[in-house]
Design brief:
Number of domains: 2
Strand order of the largest sheet: 4-2-5-6-13-12-11-8-9
Structural class: alpha+beta
Number of helices: 22
Shape: elongated
Number of strands: 25
Distance between the termini: 74 Å
Helix content: 25-40%
Length: 708
């Protein structure tokens, strides 16, 4: 019989709860260590020259009890102490517990060995710490920019987190480092190295443990695991189950509360309780999960009720309804689409009045004025695409009129050159009238905002034969391609991934040499750095453009929307902005062209996405999704959290998650989006929608303001 090797080691004594992460990781590593509940008993049990770990049992509420008497006992016995989150320290004034916002741990010069070089960044989520004043800290908590390294150094306003007091035989952590599993600290290799350093400091002659632990949230498959044949189906079903179990489906009995919180500008809800009721889609779907990880490992829900997320989530449920014959999924898909168009405020007010210039538009979000006023072209496009696919899969024409209204509304606010611009809010649309935008010569070289509307127009041209849909889209696409890449706003893989869909559908309509060259050039540039694992790294020319820039100083960190990388060598990929849309684009491009290399790249990306889907037994509401960031070298969820709203650990219910899920479903069904929606009878609504649209001639709105 095979036996497990166990090391009995007396050089270091633990004083902690049996549930302490460090203690349990030691035990799991086959290293039996003595443990005491009493600090005094632990110190007296330690051998001379050994060490005692006084760990924080009541973090972050109460500091770890410590006193001059305990320190005196340790010094008399020549025992070195590591204490974390201490209630008292010699020669230090006591202060109130502090809490970080965006600060991260930083290894200070000269470093702590090859695995912990100077300025290396550690993630200490929701760090609560005791203020201390020391000259040479080993680790600080500081507001720093960078991916793995604090590239601009450490600002003066940095708080010590780990330091030595040699004259007292003390090693001090002002926070709780031993809760690294529950609090989801990272990167894993550096957290392990930090504990090895601490153990070796406490007992230089002792064995250094090789800690073993399973992260609370981890990728479904390791890099070299052999995937099962049904891996994509499992990934699809786990994604739909995540939607169902995520705590984001708003139940009817909570809808009023959610709207009240939104009207009060509240952004977040705590993680869902096990007893919380699950909605059926009739009250909408919340935006997702915030990136910030709380000290207990939980993440807060993002409250916004966004039109795009609701429609994109519906796609996954619609596909599940047909793939798995799931009537509950069909109900939820239909309810979500009906919520957008008929029951929420997303299409009400001026957007529901044929005489108003905003007729047919879809609000960015519901229940808060800042979201209700906005008409984003890209968000409208993804709402419409989500509804188009849901309708086709469920074989219903219930939303055909709403789809056509939305396409026509956005098209008549698109300028002569095929560009609409980022957003047109209700008030300027009322003041100017839609014809002002139709006659403008707008040029906006940002596929992130323009390309999916072109895809909608090309799809609508194929179904209706309305020539301007094609001609204006071609004008805009040509200008966009002539400006590539030097004149593009962001010059990154986000934008390249976005262009694939409209270029693929342009090839469907006009399979010319030039159109194929555009598509293949865009795909080639996106895939140039695709790794053997299938990952597509984030890649950026310069620091970025528009409001999407890499922080150029510590002060810029956390102040705007940013890439996940600090420089192009950082091994991060972005499922929120790039991989989901790249997956859809490659799927449509491979189908449109029959190109085997595109199909191979799509398959490799599909395999990678199966591997990095989240799993969590402890936090089931996070299991089955795709977090925004994944580091394909570390093989863990890691990147620069500089983005002010959508950091590495955020989970958006729509966007990347939704399109990854949808494309997985389409691949299971063996069809492209274009082919799946080919039989749409939306043309039957053309005349009635045109008659509705003609009730406003494009002049400024003279009626009652509808922007509220």
């Amino acid at each position: 019989m095979k036996t497990t090797s166990v090391t009995y080691y007396q050089g270091i004594i633990f004083c902690c709860s049996e549930q302490n992460d460090l203690y349990r990781a030691n035990m799991k590593s086959g290293r039996r260590v003595p443990r005491f509940d009493s600090a005094e008993d632990a110190i007296k049990a330690a051998p001379p020259g050994g060490g005692v770990l006084l760990l924080a049992n009541d973090y972050p509420v109460s500091p770890t009890p410590f006193s001059p008497e305990l320190l005196g006992i340790a010094k008399n016995r020549n025992v070195k102490i590591y204490i974390e989150f201490p209630s008292w320290l010699p020669n230090q004034e006591s202060g109130d517990i502090q809490n970080i916002h965006r600060e991260r741990g930083v290894i200070m010069p000269p470093g702590m060995g090859p695995d912990l070089p100077e300025f290396r960044i550690l993630l200490l989520n929701d760090c609560h710490y005791i203020p201390a004043s020391v000259n040479n800290p080993l680790v600080t908590i500081a507001h720093v920019a960078g991916y793995d390294r604090a590239v601009y150094g450490v600002p003066e306003k940095a708080a010590p987190i780990l330091f030595e007091m040699p004259e007292e035989n003390l090693l001090v952590s002002t926070t709780c480092l031993s809760c690294f599993i529950k609090s989801r600290y990272g990167p894993e290799a550096q957290i392990s190295a930090l504990w090895k350093w601490i153990f070796s400091r406490l007992d230089p002659n002792g064995a250094v443990p090789d800690l073993k632990w399973k992260p609370v949230v981890y990728p479904a498959w390791e890099r070299d695991d052999t995937l099962p044949k049904d891996a994509e189906r499992l990934a699809f079903e786990n994604a739909v189950n995540w939607y169902r179990n995520s705590g984001l489906l708003v139940s009817r009995d909570r809808a009023e509360e959610i709207h009240r919180l939104l009207s009060e500008s509240r952004q977040h809800l705590p993680a869902p309780a096990d007893s919380e009721p699950v909605g059926d889609g009739s009250s909408g779907f919340l935006e997702g999960y915030a990136s910030e990880i709380n000290w207990d490992g939980n993440q807060n829900r993002n409250l916004p009720l966004r039109a795009d997320c609701n429609s994109e989530v519906a796609m996954g449920f619609a596909l599940d309804a047909r793939i798995n014959n799931n009537s509950q999924s069909e109900l939820i898909a239909k309810n979500l689409q009906n919520y957008i168009y008929f029951y929420s405020g997303l299409c009400k007010g001026g957007r529901g009045n044929p005489k108003h210039p905003a007729y047919g538009h879809i609000a960015w979000g519901d229940a808060h004025p800042a979201w209700v006023i906005a008409n984003y072209g890209d968000d409208n496009a993804r709402v419409l695409l989500g509804t188009i696919l849901s309708a086709a899969v469920l074989e219903t024409s219930d939303w055909n009129e709403a789809i056509l209204r939305g396409i026509r509304a956005n098209f008549r606010t698109t300028g002569k050159l095929g560009f609409r611009g980022d957003r047109i809010d209700m008030q300027p649309l009322e003041q100017n009238g839609w014809k002002h935008y139709a006659n403008a010569e707008t040029v906006s070289l940002s596929p992130h905002f323009e390309s999916y509307l072109w895809a909608c127009y090309l799809w609508a041209y194929d179904k209706t034969g309305y020539e301007p849909f094609l001609t204006q889209s071609k004008i805009g696409i040509r200008i966009m391609m002539e400006g590539y890449p030097d004149k593009w706003r962001w010059k990154d893989n986000i934008e390249r991934a976005r262009m694939l869909l409209c270029l693929s559908w342009l090839v469907r309509l006009e399979n010319t040499t030039e159109h194929r060259e555009w598509l293949m050039r865009m795909a080639k540039d996106l895939l140039e750095l695709q790794t053997e694992s299938g990952a597509i790294p984030e890649w950026l020319e310069g620091s970025g453009g528009g409001h999407y820039i890499i922080p150029q100083s510590n002060e810029q960190y956390g102040t705007g929307e940013t890439p996940l990388i600090q420089e192009n060598s950082d091994p991060a990929c972005d499922t929120l902005y790039t991989l989901g849309f790249g997956f859809l684009g490659l799927h449509e491009a491979a189908s449109a062209t029959g190109d085997p290399d595109l199909k191979k790249a799509e398959d490799r990306l599909a395999e990678f996405l199966c591997r990095i889907q989240t799993r969590s037994e402890a936090l089931p509401y996070l299991s089955g999704a795709w977090m925004r960031a994944f580091d394909f070298d570390k093989w863990e969820y890691w990147a620069s959290p500089a983005d002010v709203g959508w950091g590495p650990w955020s989970i958006e219910s729509g966007w990347g998650n939704a399109w990854i899920t949808a494309v997985m479903g389409l691949r299971i069904r063996g069809e492209s989006f274009w082919d799946a929606t080919a039989k749409s009878n939306i043309q039957s609504k053309w005349e009635s929608v045109e008659m509705q649209m003609e009730q406003n001639d494009g002049s400024p709105w003279s009626g009652e303001a509808a922007s509220k």
